[in-house]
Amino acid sequence: MSMTEKEQILICEAKFLRAMASGDLALLDSLLDSRLVFHIPSGQFMTKEMDLENFRSVPMKMHQISSEEPIISVFEGVSIVSVVVHLNAEYSGKPVQGKFRHIRIWKKSRENAWKVIGGSGIMLQ
């Protein structure tokens, strides 16, 4: 029995968090589309290359990352995920802690693989 697109996206989301937690650049590279448009909580615009370079060059220590409350809308070949992310990390020696609402837009590629094409994150109070 084949998986639904929603089940596929849940697996992709878990891979995405695992890649971030472990700093697995190869896995991140495989999950991000080359045309990625993303806004981090500070409002800064990021492309795929900027995001990967950030992981390569800035010292980041992930102490804990988890997600909850996924809301997934599936369309033909596109899925939108809204999720709450709990983060406890150090970024360039500075603590980054909190609860964030992230939205990620996944698109199925020609190779039938899901890739993040866009998204945004905001800090929750």
UniProtKB/TrEMBL annotation:
Transmembrane segments: none annotated. It comes from Algoriphagus lacus. This is Nuclear transport factor 2 family protein. Coiled coil: none annotated. Residues 12-116 form the DUF4440 domain.
